[in-house]
TrEMBL record:
<protein>
    <recommendedName>
        <fullName>Chitinase class I</fullName>
    </recommendedName>
</protein>
<dbReference type="InterPro" id="IPR023346">
    <property type="entry name" value="Lysozyme-like_dom_sf"/>
</dbReference>
Length: 194
């Protein structure tokens, strides 16, 4: 289904951007809508709404791929094998000192951890391990975002697990990306995109 972009922008501009949808935000939304229309246009539009709600939160309304908030020390403490959370580091595949900083969150969905970068590097045939900033390219970030959420590549949970013909669970859909962190907030954003 083709999205009527001007109507869509008017609606979300009012609801989500206080009538101040910038050119940069519009450009990011056009990238995301274009990717959806090219690859997933026959899928449930509620999925698109949830993806956009997730992006809205993860990139702080910029609608552009970004680096995760934080300085190197924060990433080291949070994600590095020698930091404060070695178990988290292992879960993310951060097995070498320095991985926590190198593989901090990037993109539309904050791809994090050596193992996630390695998976997408292989899948996209792109050097994300030596140059993780490649995950900031809009087309790359879009691919990771949509396929990750629709196929369940981040946590093993997919959009179809929560939003389908018999269920519409906007809260637990957050488990696709990040447990229930900010689930209520993202539900609100997603429903406004819907």
């Amino acid at each position: 289904m083709k999205i009527q972009k001007e109507t869509f922008f008017a609606q979300i501009g009012s609801a989500l951007f206080k009538n101040r949808l910038s050119d940069t935000q519009r450009q990011g939304l056009n990238t995301l809508l274009g990717y959806w229309e090219q690859h997933f246009s026959k899928q449930d539009l509620r999925w698109l709404a949830y993806v956009l709600g997730t992006v809205h939160h993860e990139v702080r309304k910029s609608m552009q791929p970004i680096h995760e908030d934080g300085a190197d020390q924060y990433f080291f403490d949070k994600y590095d094998i020698q930091g404060h959370n070695p178990e988290t580091a292992k879960e993310l595949g951060n097995i070498y000192p320095g991985d926590g900083v190198k593989f901090h969150g990037r993109g539309f969905v904050q791809l994090t951890g050596r193992s996630n970068y390695a998976y997408w590097a292989k899948r996209l045939n792109l050097d994300l391990l030596n140059d993780p900033d490649n995950a900031l390219q809009p087309e790359v970030a879009s691919t990771i975002l949509f396929h990750g959420m629709i196929e369940g590549r981040f946590t093993g949970k997919a959009l179809s697990d929560y939003i389908n013909e018999t269920e519409e669970d906007w809260i637990n859909a957050r488990r696709i990306v990040n447990r229930l962190d900010k689930a209520e907030e993202i539900k609100t954003y997603a429903q406004q995109y819907w």
